[in-house]
């Protein structure tokens, strides 16, 4: 599964890099500070497509092992196409995003419902995003964004992390916030 995801991302980046004139456009590297607050390493690349469009390829991966058996393992991919009313990498933007992820979370003492259980499964969906980019000089910027849309989750609930005693299999659908970001950005020219 990881190999297929990795090859898909490499294919997308290769196809986008072959678009004529792309290298003359701006591109940016970014990381979402809110995910770092949950100990989740993440990063993204945003590539300009013309004057008012860009494509954002962002992902997160958390494989940390905690001493108290708490689990917060996941990987998440969220590609997005953005429209900038004035000029890319400046001011307001709106976007259409998709997402896919796999999670193994649980035994988190401060979240009710996850204190005594572990959830393992997949999620997918998509939605709309609104955001704003503040530029600081020629190369640095900060971006905030909020996305709302649909998420479908299929997961199995376990009583503990190692005993593999399933409590049940569940499918949940959700409409609401799907993306939240406060990102630090470095613009490449």
| Radius of gyration, CA atoms, in whole angstroms | 18 Å
| Total number of helices | 2
**Tally of strands:** 8
State the CATH topology.
Porin
Helix and strand pattern:
HEHEEEEEEE
Count of the separate structural domains:
1
CA distance, first residue to last residue: 34 Å
Work out the strand percent. Answer: over 45%
Organism: Parabacteroides faecis
InterPro entries: DUF3575
Protein name: DUF3575 domain-containing protein
Describe the structure.
The model is unreliable at 20-24 (pLDDT under 50). The chain has a single domain (2-188), classed as Porin. The two termini are 34 Å apart. An eight-stranded antiparallel barrel has the order 1-2-3-4-5-6-7-8. Helices cover 11% and strands 60% of the residues. It has helices at residues 2-17, 33-36, and strands at 27-32, 42-49, 53-62, 71-83, 91-106, 118-136, 140-158, 166-188. It is elongated, with a radius of gyration of 18 Å. The chain is mostly beta strands and 189 residues long.
